Amino acid sequence: MKKKKVKLRDLGSKERQGKHGHGSGHNHGGPEGVSKFKTYLPAIFSFAMLIIGIAVDYFDAFPFFKGWIRIIWYTLAYLPVGFPVIKEGWNSIKHGDFFTEFFLMSIATLGAFAIGEYPEGVAVMLFYAVGELFQNAAVNRAKGNIKALLDARPDEALVLRNGNFVTVNPQTVEIGERIQVRVGEKIPLDGILLSEKASLNTAAITGESRPDTINKGEKVFAGSINLDGVIDVETSKEFKDSSITRILDMVQNATARKSKTELFIRRFARIYTPIVVFLAIGLTFLPYFFLNDYVFRDWLYRALIFLVVSCPCALVISIPLGYFGGLGAASRNGILFKGASFLEAITKVNTVVMDKTGTVTKGVFKIKEIKAVKFEEVELMKYLMAMEEQSTHPIAKAILEYKAEGTDMKATDVTEVAGKGLKGTVNGNTVLVGNKALMASNNIDVPPETDDIVNSIVMLAIDEKFVGYVTIADELKEDAHQAIKQIRDAGISKIIMLSGDKDSITQHVSKKLNIDWAKGGLLPEDKLSEVEELKKQSDTKVAFMGDGINDAPVLAVSDVGIAMGGLGSDVAIETADVIIQTDQPSKMARAIKIGRSTRKIVWQNIGLAFGVKAFVLILGAGGLATMWEAVFADVGVALLAILNAVRLQRMKWNP
């Protein structure tokens, strides 16, 4: 069905976009600045006119309320809610869409007028309009999360230029500029903290309400609120690439990626609606050939009921709204799904494959042990630090954090030995820093005890003699153990770890976390091969959790790719289907639970809509249902389905 944009002034909607009734989206809110009263005014007017008319009919208080006077009264009651629908039905026909809900409601209510059932004609259209207003309220509630993100985007930045801090639009700030953020203000762009410490509310980014303490040199994200003291930040990204802008784009674009269930209902509605229209025509005229006491008016009335009941809006409203609610609930929990299709796909996952560094570990290396031979520990570290100052490796950064007095040694003639370490000169001595392979290639004997060390080891040799080593290890994230337990509790049958780190470390970590199977020392293509082998098993649905550039190929090929959004690389985040903003692997289990809750509510709505409609259609065809039952089967069921979908926004998914 083609997309169109139609003004619906009288239903309080300045603009409605999408394939209403057969499409996904509705936009029934009034334009900005229009009061709620004005939005509901057409429905209030019609309701008042309808109640007065019914009362006058019932009590027969005014003898003149007959004939044309009565017709004009109910017509005036009908027009505020009926005219916009008839107009949009006509526009749909002009665009080639005959069997829309606008067409069905227009024919049914005009048909009711044609046979003199004026109150029922007005009532059907009025309740339809009220249903639209309720739906609008539900959609606006579901969109509250996106609005909160929009509100979180700062609209000004205090930037240092020509020696003074000046207020500018954040979009004009360049990478590397210094900005200042006062207490209570939002950080306008992603950057590096220049101040010693900051206390930030990062709820808009991570979904976590508790304050986050950031130290000098660590990353800060746009949209975070500064809670304590003036802070300075050096920008690291442009405004268009900032975290808050990226999150907003992801959540907004997610609604365009439909789930398989949603797409099926769309296709079903396009087939189902015309079938019902032709059945209604048959219900009107076919009895003439089989019944002796055929009364055209009676059978037309049954057909009109049939049309009202057949309207598929309960399905095509509540299903997208259910998925939208699931997406919103996930983003409130610091989990961003890039589409409803992934919200559905994660419910089918039975195997979780995860990277190690940055996923279940912090990706921050720390010195675990220093072993000096013939040297004092401090002297050993001075030589080691002098060499590692020439390296950008994460292990070098960990070594340089060692505190030693008078670390004024300088290394010269430093060269890198590919895959092994560094070679250089310190204080006139030839120094080798690296792994066991570097020592072996230079014929330097190392103690046998080093063979049993699991952690990363940096060995040091001076003038061709082994003088000691330092062990470096990554730390597990605080929730790593909890994450594995919760993933298992969520029904995942197999958990696997694939890492580029050496196999001994990978096996050690996997054993600590009680992971089913692990393999280390893998290149990106090796990880890809392992996951592709898993996917060849017909009953296996794989979710992969990773954070680095090297994980991007596996994230892309997995059934569901999950990236760590805080520490993760931009490439991984762009490739993944789901982003965990808090870097907590335990959020994986919550993502699965949210997906399952969403699927459950969607299928509840499908069952409710089909069940009630089928029942009332049968009653209507047999002459046992009136327009009032038809209104319930259409608008009433739609409202119940909407209320059921809204439940997602109040649910809690505790561990």
From TrEMBL:
<feature type="region of interest" description="Disordered">
    <location>
        <begin position="1"/>
        <end position="31"/>
    </location>
</feature>
<keyword id="KW-1133">Transmembrane helix</keyword>
<dbReference type="Pfam" id="PF00702">
    <property type="entry name" value="Hydrolase"/>
</dbReference>
<feature type="transmembrane region" description="Helical">
    <location>
        <begin position="303"/>
        <end position="324"/>
    </location>
</feature>
<dbReference type="InterPro" id="IPR059000">
    <property type="entry name" value="ATPase_P-type_domA"/>
</dbReference>
<dbReference type="GO" id="GO:0015086">
    <property type="term" value="F:cadmium ion transmembrane transporter activity"/>
</dbReference>
<protein>
    <recommendedName>
        <fullName>P-type Zn(2+) transporter</fullName>
        <ecNumber>7.2.2.12</ecNumber>
    </recommendedName>
</protein>
<dbReference type="InterPro" id="IPR023214">
    <property type="entry name" value="HAD_sf"/>
</dbReference>
<feature type="transmembrane region" description="Helical">
    <location>
        <begin position="68"/>
        <end position="86"/>
    </location>
</feature>
<feature type="transmembrane region" description="Helical">
    <location>
        <begin position="601"/>
        <end position="621"/>
    </location>
</feature>
<keyword id="KW-0472">Membrane</keyword>
<keyword id="KW-0812">Transmembrane</keyword>
<keyword id="KW-0479">Metal-binding</keyword>
<dbReference type="GO" id="GO:0016463">
    <property type="term" value="F:P-type zinc transporter activity"/>
</dbReference>
<dbReference type="GO" id="GO:0046872">
    <property type="term" value="F:metal ion binding"/>
</dbReference>
<feature type="compositionally biased region" description="Basic and acidic residues">
    <location>
        <begin position="8"/>
        <end position="18"/>
    </location>
</feature>
<feature type="transmembrane region" description="Helical">
    <location>
        <begin position="39"/>
        <end position="56"/>
    </location>
</feature>
<feature type="domain" description="P-type ATPase A">
    <location>
        <begin position="153"/>
        <end position="252"/>
    </location>
</feature>
<dbReference type="GO" id="GO:0016887">
    <property type="term" value="F:ATP hydrolysis activity"/>
</dbReference>
<dbReference type="InterPro" id="IPR018303">
    <property type="entry name" value="ATPase_P-typ_P_site"/>
</dbReference>
<keyword id="KW-1278">Translocase</keyword>
<keyword id="KW-0378">Hydrolase</keyword>
<dbReference type="InterPro" id="IPR001757">
    <property type="entry name" value="P_typ_ATPase"/>
</dbReference>
<feature type="transmembrane region" description="Helical">
    <location>
        <begin position="627"/>
        <end position="646"/>
    </location>
</feature>
<comment type="similarity">
    <text>Belongs to the cation transport ATPase (P-type) (TC 3.A.3) family. Type IB subfamily.</text>
</comment>
<dbReference type="GO" id="GO:0005524">
    <property type="term" value="F:ATP binding"/>
</dbReference>
<dbReference type="InterPro" id="IPR036412">
    <property type="entry name" value="HAD-like_sf"/>
</dbReference>
<dbReference type="InterPro" id="IPR023299">
    <property type="entry name" value="ATPase_P-typ_cyto_dom_N"/>
</dbReference>
<dbReference type="InterPro" id="IPR044492">
    <property type="entry name" value="P_typ_ATPase_HD_dom"/>
</dbReference>
<feature type="transmembrane region" description="Helical">
    <location>
        <begin position="122"/>
        <end position="139"/>
    </location>
</feature>
<dbReference type="InterPro" id="IPR051014">
    <property type="entry name" value="Cation_Transport_ATPase_IB"/>
</dbReference>
<feature type="transmembrane region" description="Helical">
    <location>
        <begin position="98"/>
        <end position="116"/>
    </location>
</feature>
<keyword id="KW-0547">Nucleotide-binding</keyword>
<feature type="transmembrane region" description="Helical">
    <location>
        <begin position="271"/>
        <end position="291"/>
    </location>
</feature>
<dbReference type="InterPro" id="IPR023298">
    <property type="entry name" value="ATPase_P-typ_TM_dom_sf"/>
</dbReference>
<keyword id="KW-0067">ATP-binding</keyword>
<dbReference type="GO" id="GO:0005886">
    <property type="term" value="C:plasma membrane"/>
</dbReference>
<dbReference type="InterPro" id="IPR008250">
    <property type="entry name" value="ATPase_P-typ_transduc_dom_A_sf"/>
</dbReference>
<dbReference type="InterPro" id="IPR027256">
    <property type="entry name" value="P-typ_ATPase_IB"/>
</dbReference>
<dbReference type="Pfam" id="PF00122">
    <property type="entry name" value="E1-E2_ATPase"/>
</dbReference>
<keyword id="KW-1003">Cell membrane</keyword>
